[in-house]
Design brief:
A seven-stranded antiparallel sheet has the order 1-2-3-4-5-6-7, with no helix packed on it. It has strands at 4-7, 13-18, 21-23, 29-33, 38-41, 46-50, 56-57. By secondary structure, the protein is an all-beta fold. It contains no helices and seven strands. The chain is 0% helix and 33% strand.
């Protein structure tokens, strides 16, 4: 599986996407991404979307009811075990 770095606004790596799972820089599972590029937390709360330049973005104004995902994937475990396979 291809690992894609995700960046924050300042341009530093904030997380890694190994579709559909998103991990923080120390390898903990923090969320997931749908085929529509929507990002959700591990609890299913809407976070934002992945932009073309691999940033997680969110509109400043959202409707009163925030979206939730009922399509939460199975917990993949920690990516730390797989770290020796990562070439970043």
């Amino acid at each position: 599986m291809k690992i894609i770095p995700l960046y924050h606004s300042k341009g530093d790596v904030a997380a890694f996407l190994q579709y559909p799972h998103i991990y923080n820089p120390i390898g903990e599972w923090i969320g997931f991404c749908t085929v529509e590029r929507e990002v959700f937390s591990v609890l299913g709360n809407y976070v934002g979307y992945v932009s073309e330049d691999h940033r997680i973005l969110r509109k400043r104004t959202l409707s009163a009811s925030l979206r939730r995902s009922n399509r939460r994937p199975i917990h993949p475990g920690s990516a730390r075990r797989q770290r020796s396979h990562l070439r970043l």
